[in-house]
Amino acid sequence: MEFNISLVGQAITFALLVLFTMKFVWPPLTNMMDERAKRIADGLAAAERGKQDLEAAEKRVADEMNKARQQATEIVMAAEKRASQIVDEAKDTARAEGARIVAEAKSEVDQEVLRAKETLRAHVADLAVAGAEKILRREIDPARHADLLASIKAEF
């Protein structure tokens, strides 16, 4: 009988232990496990959000890099175009300056030719007068010869 009483005592103790555990121990344990599960879930969600944010940031970086490359290409193209314009402007300026210098040189040459012709005419006239004077020294009318020589001088 002692065995039955001992078994019943153990059963009652076990039942009291189960009731005590269910009433006082089990709720805090389940709360802690629920809180831990929630923290783990929050951590996983945050990691997933971080992963998505990282992917979005990488995409934005790639987009910005493409924009920067495109802008750099546009800047280089604009610089090359401006350099070409500057070279063309310099060529046009040099051509205009060269044409002006050539025109001035032609004008100076023409003036020098006219001066040389005038000087040559004067020398030829002087020579003609000197030659005619020597040949015609015996002639009586010097005024008439002066008129004749002036007309000859004007013709040349």
UniProtKB/TrEMBL annotation:
Keywords: ATP synthesis, Cell inner membrane, Cell membrane, CF(0), Coiled coil, Hydrogen ion transport, Ion transport, Membrane, Transmembrane, Transmembrane helix, Transport. InterPro entries: ATP_synth_B-like_membr_sf, ATP_synth_b/b'su_bac/chlpt, ATP_synth_F0_bsu_bac, ATP_synthase_B_chain. HAMAP family: ATP_synth_b_bprime (MF_01398). Belongs to the ATPase B chain family. Its main location: membrane. GO terms for molecular function: proton-transporting ATP synthase activity, rotational mechanism; proton-transporting ATPase activity, rotational mechanism. Residues 44-82 form a coiled coil. F-type ATPases have 2 components, F(1) - the catalytic core - and F(0) - the membrane proton channel. F(1) has five subunits: alpha(3), beta(3), gamma(1), delta(1), epsilon(1). F(0) has three main subunits: a(1), b(2) and c(10-14). The alpha and beta chains form an alternating ring which encloses part of the gamma chain. F(1) is attached to F(0) by a central stalk formed by the gamma and epsilon chains, while a peripheral stalk is formed by the delta and b chains. F-type ATPases have 2 components, F(1) - the catalytic core - and F(0) - the membrane proton channel. F(1) has five subunits: alpha(3), beta(3), gamma(1), delta(1), epsilon(1). F(0) has four main subunits: a(1), b(2) and c(10-14). The alpha and beta chains form an alternating ring which encloses part of the gamma chain. F(1) is attached to F(0) by a central stalk formed by the gamma and epsilon chains, while a peripheral stalk is formed by the delta and b chains. F(1)F(0) ATP synthase produces ATP from ADP in the presence of a proton or sodium gradient. F-type ATPases consist of two structural domains, F(1) containing the extramembraneous catalytic core and F(0) containing the membrane proton channel, linked together by a central stalk and a peripheral stalk. During catalysis, ATP synthesis in the catalytic domain of F(1) is coupled via a rotary mechanism of the central stalk subunits to proton translocation. The gene is atpF. This is ATP synthase subunit b. GO terms for cellular component: endomembrane system; plasma membrane; proton-transporting ATP synthase complex. It is found in: Cell membrane; Endomembrane system. The keyword Cell membrane applies. NCBIfam families: ATP_synt_b, PRK05759.1-2. The lineage of its organism: Bacteria, Pseudomonadati, Pseudomonadota, Betaproteobacteria, Neisseriales. It is a single-pass membrane protein. It comes from Paludibacterium paludis. The chain crosses the membrane at residues 6-26. Gene3D superfamilies: F1F0 ATP synthase subunit B, membrane domain (1.20.5.620).
